[in-house]
Amino acid sequence: MPRFMTLFKRSFSIKLILLAAGLLAFGTPSLGWAFSVETLPNTEVKNDFVLGPGKTEIFLNPGDTAVRELIVTNRTGRDVQFKIEVEDFVGTRDPERTTVLLGNERGPYSLRDYVKPERSEFVLAHGERARVSIEVRIPYDASPGGRYGTVLLSAQPPATNIDNDPGAAQGGAKIITRLGTLFFVRVAGEVSEDGRLYAFRTFGKRFFSSGPISFEVLYENNGNVHLNPYGLIEITNMFGNKIGKIEVDPWFAMPNSLRFREVRWDKPFLFGRYRAHGEFNRGYGDLIDEADTVFWVVPWRILLLSFVALFLIVLLFRWIISKFEFRRKI
């Protein structure tokens, strides 16, 4: 019996060694690989393809792995070859540019080395929808803070159809369309959250002839993780009565960036002086920034038509009176 147990232990140890060697040779098995393709009947030809979701947010500890799914739908009316690539992206101080893709460059909060698509290339016929797994693996020695990258999907006709492809440019050059899903990964640990409302005002002007009224919200993020501010705007008229309320849904602001957000208030029949009061949550610590802006709505076209109509009515009334007095004298 003791000899049997000794042989069993030796056999079990050998199996563990072989398993460890296999993992070292071939890598740890990926989680949730589930590439699949389904056909959507009666898919309308719209000469495009659809990629979703547009944004993925993940919270991970160092050493953790997560798998997310992208969905690709071909609506081009032909077979399309898709290619998946990963790039870093950053925010900017330019309010007109939300993010900038870095191509082959590595960003200050790089994620590209930690993202592994299930497949790098695949082909879909018109009306087919694919589900592609994307693995995000954070190393054990990763520093706390934000990591940012985008999974880019480029579409071009298969090589066998290049000559007959109506989307190909003259001279054989192909027109390649790209869509991307932004990945926001936050590695747990001590981070710097430092955001504030930079500006709140009407967009471009303070005098309007009619609605809608557009507001400009600028948010500054000086920390090392992205933030998701949100807020509420209340509008009062010249008599101090609240006549409107706008809920501002959360939007993302990248580290070391200035993020622009346009908010529209569409209300008819406005006239006079109005005040908009904004309360914006910074997206952390339940900190609130407040600001006010004043604007005027003067529908000058309507006023001009009203004055013209009133002038014509006065002329008509005077003409009627003059005719009536002339007949009385006769």
Shape: flat
Oligomeric state: single chain
Strand percentage lies at 35-45%
The first-level CATH class of the largest domain is given as Mainly Beta
Specify Rg, calculated over alpha carbons: 31 Å
Question: Helix segment count?
Answer: 2
Largest sheet: 6 strands, mixed
The figure for the number of domains is: 3
CATH fold-level label of the largest domain: Immunoglobulin-like
Helix-and-strand structural type:
alpha+beta
Low-pLDDT residue intervals, each spanning 5 or more residues: 3-12, 14-29, 166-173
What is the succession of H and E elements?
Answer: HEEEEEEEEEEEEEEEEEEEH
The CATH architecture of the largest domain: Sandwich
The helical percent reads 10-25%
CATH homologous superfamily caption of the largest domain: Immunoglobulins
Report the span from N to C terminus.
Answer: 145 Å
Overall pLDDT, averaged? 83
Would you count the extended β strands for me? 19
In short:
This protein is an alpha+beta fold and 330 residues long. The chain is 17% helix and 43% strand.
Walkthrough of the structure:
Strands 3, 5, 6, 8, 10 and 11 form a 6-stranded mixed beta sheet that branches. Strands 1, 2, 4, 7 and 9 form a 5-stranded antiparallel beta sheet that branches. The protein has a 5-stranded mixed beta sheet with strand order 13-19-18-15-16, with no helix packed on it. A hairpin with a 6-residue loop joins strand 18 and strand 19. The chain contains 2 helices and 19 strands. Helices cover 17% and strands 43% of the residues. The N terminus is likely disordered. The longest helix has 30 residues. The protein folds into 3 domains: 157 residues, Immunoglobulins (Immunoglobulin-like, Sandwich), CATH 2.60.40.10; 104 residues, Immunoglobulins (Immunoglobulin-like), CATH 2.60.40.10; 27 residues. The relative contact order is 0.13. It is of the alpha+beta class. It is flat and about 90 Å long.
